[in-house]
Design a protein that fits this description.
Chains A, B: Keywords: Aminoacyl-tRNA synthetase, ATP-binding, Cytoplasm, Ligase, Nucleotide-binding, Protein biosynthesis. Chains A, B: Pfam families: tRNA-synt_2, tRNA_anti-codon. Chains A, B: It catalyses: tRNA(Asp) + L-aspartate + ATP = L-aspartyl-tRNA(Asp) + AMP + diphosphate. Two copies of one chain form a homodimer. Chain A is 32% helix and 22% strand. Chain A is built from 16 helices and 18 strands. Chain A has helices at residues 6-13, 20-40, 129-136, 185-189, 192-200, 210-215, 217-220, 224-246, 285-293, 334-354, 356-365, 382-391, 404-418, 469-478, 487-491, 507-514; strands spanning 41-42, 56-59, 88-101, 104-111, 114-121, 143-151, 165-175, 250-251, 257-259, 270-273, 276-280, 298-306, 319-328, 378-381, 422-426, 449-454, 457-464, 500-506. In chain A, helix 8 (224-246) crosses helix 16. The longest helix of chain A has 23 residues, at 224-246. The interface between A and B is large, with 117 and 117 residues.
């Protein structure tokens, strides 16, 4: 919302003066509560002679230390609607904007990204000039309790998310924010469209850079888009988990502290563990597979994954949330793809169904096209992917991995041809997959592996694993890995190991790509990259 | 189950010979599949002249490399019941025990802790002597595919979990276990009662120590009790999560890599992060609170917590799974207790309702009394706890923390007096709580804090937090903490902070104490303690 234009709009939409009945009701309410509120608030020095001073003020600390359970009920700002009309409600939220004009004050209160306009108008026995003075002096982002009558304005309020106004009867400040905020929330919440509009009107808006935002993440996270992003992230976890629980998967928690270095490849974070060398798990791969060898059948984990890579891209983090699963395969790695497909269609459908409000909030700041996906999901072999690229005139090595650019190109071509942003590429060349990937039965140059793409970017990697200790030893040797360093891993398969496969997904990437955001730091609550370890 | 007695029991309970119709059906089925199976299996050298060799053998590697999707359906051993009677089913499981006797073989197949007896009997055109020979030579713990007719025996089979038998028509080995297993599953699964019975009968059973089990965790985890423990753990997570989602909580993932050392107290794991000193989060405390200051209202996290403490007790781990939540408080920390109570009653009720099978499996190896709990949950102040102890003649300092022994004693006294294993102790002395705990409004020697106990052991710790930066600074100083080291933490509250509180629970402790297990290593999949970093 645009804060600067809001007060004007609000003034225009203020409801007509109260009826006598309303007034009497409010007065009665005010008197009833006055003694109580006098006892529970501090008076401002200015207001010593205000007989209505009990209706506003800073709440004394002792009243925030669990002094009483009054039975009062708070309504959430985001729930305020026309069905509350003519009810007196109590809300707790932040001072989003505030503006005074003679005997009228305008306070926009925000809670979890939702905003409501609160009108403070002098009224006998209820609202004094002192209250308006008090309200207009409130620091932005302070936490306030506001009691007021819900009024449906004749014209909808512009610039707030809720369609109603509160006609304030009481205001108490629960926590005062510093006068000077390091970043301004309105600046953080402004969309590209608003920037352009402002420019056309000759306004100069401040642009808050990604680093400044992250340095002040506690404020930055309060924008409607950020409130929405992490509620969507929560839904992705919840849908992923429930889809797998419904398929008889068991949720595990595998250790993140690992002796020595976990499965080769990208670099690891090393530490000393009680005198032993240790590292942080780069993936739950080994332990997931051990759980399969330990008869859990189908397992999954949602947990942190640590990568000490020096990747300064829009899509890499040093710590991210892995959504991993592993399952017994009876015959074919397509069984893994079937589960994967079910899980992701559940996630996409679920987000569209349950998170309409949140998707709208994100769209308002970062406009994006809704994700297109087919049912069933498109499955192409790697070779088919190569053919599509070649057909379009791109010269690609059919046995080498695609780079990010090629993946994006393929994504566009697939979108044109099949009308989907979500698809599976499988049967990758063995040479570009880890040694523990099961080779294809008919051509060992290829493997029973897959990647999954959203909007041309990889979000999932998975495969059937080699469950046979002899073949595993052979594959490691062929890949030039010292088998001695793998003995614990290989030994896990010596006591009977069912064929199995699985996949790993990055939670932050799913959210980023579903919403077509341009940086993974936007979907990590407190991101960690090679240059950022705080807050 | 007792493996040694099983085969005898099985023999007695073998169903009567097949009817002609059954036989014809099986023969038809066998012929139909023979050519296919011949192609998909390796023949054993011994069996070259066996015309029925296509009905058994080791599966060739290429047939485990996703060669085909045949459409065959596998039934789970744990699902096999009388409603499958006279149906031909296919199961995949482990060779639990095997025994041959002339033209009869007995194979107990185990899947996820469930066992079924499979009878291999020579039958014209279906089962040859070669098959019996093959079956009896299978190594324990190998993975096998068994096809057979489900038969309800006249007397229930002893020593297996499923009430039916399979009359085998085909057996294929999918993965061969090493001849020599480091630990024997039957030894791992034996209960104290069985040990005593064995002793009385003059049998000498092997006792597998905790360390040996953990060194060979992949095998140890296959026991029915362990299969049950981690399915219960999964349910605890699921119930905790759902109860909080239902209460409008948002699931978060906070970083585990922290700059410097996280909140004081017990020692931390240190590491180098791209040239900066870093450590592993000892709790999500700081980031949970930041999320509250970032307007998420109510948040929770399920994730690893790292403690480098040198605690060699039955209840401490260096890495465990924390169930943490934090929420805005409108007036009183009892709001936190109300949520806590709801969540834990949901968990207890849910486990009793959904995990009857699993609780039975645990009970068979580790007998325990079901948890007794009241509705609503008993809440006592710390002072009331002290009084109960004093009344019973225990001399305790009313302002000092209870030690583990005293907690257990109080647990017993409370159980006697109130008939509950689960209760809350609140209003602890401020001196024994962290500096960020909110003091009571009426007596700052006490704090708005609580611990929760199951069977006399603490599982949860929580409190209302100080949300005011001035009071927080004052409290830190009073506690002798250098405020400079806390600047990031304290600054989070300077831009408006709602009153809030929360709690942290150890997942492994909940499972351990619900099931009255004696060691937390039993409820951690791959435990980490000061002396164990593997597997």
């Amino acid at each position: 919302m645009e804060g600067t234009s809001a007060p004007v709009a609000m003034e225009e939409t203020t409801a007509p003066p109260m009826s006598k009945k309303e007034k009497a009701k409010l007065e009665k309410l005010a008197k009833k509560n006055m003694m109580k509120q006098m006892a529970t608030t501090q008076l401002n020095a200015d207001d010593e002679e205000d007989a209505l001073a009990g209706n506003y003020g800073d709440v004394a600390m002792e009243n925030l230390q669990s002094k009483e359970k009054s039975g009062r009920v708070w309504t959430q700002v985001g729930d305020l609607g026309q069905d509350h009309a003519q009810q007196t409600v109590l809300v707790r939220g932040r001072v989003h904007t505030v503006r005074g004009k003679g005997s009228l004050g305008f306070l926009v209160v925000r809670e979890a990204g939702h905003t409501v306009q609160c009108v403070v108008q002098v009224k006998e026995n209820v609202v004094s000039k002192g209250m308006i003075k008090y309200v207009t002096k409130l620091n932005k982002e302070s936490i306030v309790d506001v009691e007021g009558l819900v009024v449906v304005p004749p014209k909808p309020v512009e610039g707030t998310s809720q369609p109603v106004e509160l006609h304030v009867t009481k205001v108490f400040c629960v926590s005062t924010a510093a006068v000077q905020l390091p970043i301004n929330l309105e600046d953080c919440a402004r969309s590209e469209v608003d920037f352009q509009k402002g420019e056309e009107e000759g306004k100069k808006f401040v642009r808050v850079g990604q680093d400044t935002r992250l340095n002040n993440r506690v404020i930055d996270l309060r924008t409607p888009a950020n409130q929405a992003i992490f509620r969507i992230q929560c839904q992705v976890s919840a849908l992923f988990r429930q889809a797998l629980l419904d398929e008889d998967f068991v949720e595990l928690h595998t250790p993140k502290l690992i002796a020595g270095a976990s499965e080769g490849g990208s670099s690891v974070f090393k530490l000393e563990y009680k005198g032993q060398p240790a590292c942080l798990a780069q993936s739950p791969q080994l332990h997931k597979q051990m759980a399969i060898c330990a008869d859990f059948g189908r397992v999954f984990e949602i947990g942190p994954v640590f990568r000490a890579e020096d990747s300064f891209t829009h899509r890499h983090l040093c710590e991210f949330t892995g959504l991993d699963f592993e399952m017994e395969i009876k015959e074919h790695y397509f069984e893994v793809l079937d589960v994967l497909e079910k899980v992701f269609l559940t996630i996409f459908d679920g987000l569209n169904e349950k998170c309409a409000k949140q998707l709208k909030a994100i769209n308002e700041q970062y406009p994006f096209e809704p994700l297109q996906y087919l049912r069933p999901t498109l499955r192409l072999t790697f070779a088919e992917g190569v053919a599509i690229l070649k057909e379009a005139g791109h010269d690609v090595d059919p046995m080498a991995d695609f780079n990010t650019e090629t993946e994006k190109t393929l994504g566009k071509l697939v979108k044109e041809k099949y009308k989907t942003d979500f698809y599976i590429l499988h049967r990758y060349p063995s040479a570009i997959r880890p040694f523990y990937t099961m080779p294809c039965w008919d051509d060992k140059r290829y493997s029973n592996s897959f990647d999954v793409f959203i909007r041309g970017e990889e979000i999932i990697s998975g495969a059937q694993r080699v469950h046979d200790p002899e073949l595993l030893t052979k594959r490691a040797t062929e890949c030039g890995i010292d088998v001695k360093t793998l003995s614990t891993y290989i030994d896990s398969f010596r006591y009977g190991a069912p064929p199995h496969g699985g996949a790993g997904v990055g939670l932050e990437r799913v959210v980023m790509l579903f919403c077509a955001l341009n940086n993974i730091r936007k979907t990590s609550l407190f991101p960690r990259d090679p240059q950022r370890l705080a807050p």
